Amino acid sequence: MKKLGRFLGILAVAVVLAVTLGTLVPRPLWQAAVANPATTRHILVLKNPIHTDIAIPVDEGVRQRFGFLVDAGIPADAVEVRYIVFGWGGRAFYLETPTWSELKAVPVMKALTSDASVMHVDIAGDIAEPHPDVAGFDVGEERFAALLDFIAASFQQGPNGPIVVENAAYSRFDRFYEANGRFNALVGCNTWTAAALRTAGLRTGRWNPLPASLGLSMRLYN
Fold first, then answer.
1. Separation between Cα atoms, residue 200 and residue 86, nearest integer Å
2. 153: domain range?
3. What is the pLDDT of residue 33?
4. How far is CA 210 from the centre of its chain?
5. With a threshold of 0.70, does the pTM exceed it?
6. Rounded Cα distance, 113 and 118, in Å
7. d(CA 116, CA 176)
8. Number of folded domains that form the chain
9. What pLDDT, on the 0 to 100 scale, is given for residue 120?
10. Which superkingdom (predicted)?
11. How far apart are CA 63 and CA 119, in angstroms?
12. What are the distances in angstroms from CA 102 to CA 33, 35, 105, 108?
């Protein structure tokens, strides 16, 4: 028992150190020199205690790019929609834990080990800023296009396009899709968000498994 306690203590210190260094060491290490873009798009990062999403402002081009959402019943073409919200995560945890009160052991174990992944897509109207759970960033048109490419590439493709997970949704306005990549404790929803933000030309920490660490690194380096 004493050896087990010592091992767990060392493991806890190692995890804290990894998260700290992952937050404080930026990625990329040096900011590339870029010209100020003539026009920008304002994207949002939405967070809760364990998860982050990216909210993309909609225009006609974005609606066309993700036109398959309307086919699945998401009214992304409604005039009152201001953002399409994208998130990537573990299949079991995402689908089986719509609220904290429904937390189960099996999805948690899969999230900590290995699980298939899904994309969650929702829509939103105006999102208030400033807000503790909302962070906004301006990106140029070229980087915005790269971000859309990154998000689109995260959807697993079938013969007819992105694959909807049948009978899986939190409300009438959201859907789940099969996604590319495996989910685990090291490569999770927040590391996906961080990778997407780097594609958009922003800097994150080296490794950001938690919303708090991602948010701190974004404030430090952008």
1. 14
2. 2-221
3. 60
4. 11
5. yes
6. 16
7. 13
8. 1
9. 98
10. Bacteria
11. 17
12. 47, 48, 10, 11
Residue 159, CA atoms < 13 Å, CB-side half-sphere: 0
pLDDT in tens, 14-29: 566 666 777 778 887 7
160 phi/psi in degrees, rounded to 5: -115, 25
- Decide if pLDDT at 217 tops 90: yes
pLDDT bin (cut points 50, 70, 90) of residue 5 is low
pLDDT digits (tens, 9 = 90+) for 180-189: 999 998 899 9
The Cα 193–Cα 196 span in angstroms is: 5
At 67 the three-state DSSP class reads coil
The owner of tokens 């962070």 is: 135
Q: How far apart are CA 118 and CA 182, in angstroms?
A: 9
How far apart are alpha carbons 134 and 166 in whole angstroms?
Answer: 30
Assess contact for 19 and 185: CB atoms under 8 A.
no
Distance CA 197, CA 190 (A): 10
Q: Both tokens of residue 181?
A: 């990549």
> How many CB atoms within 10 Å of residue 127?
16
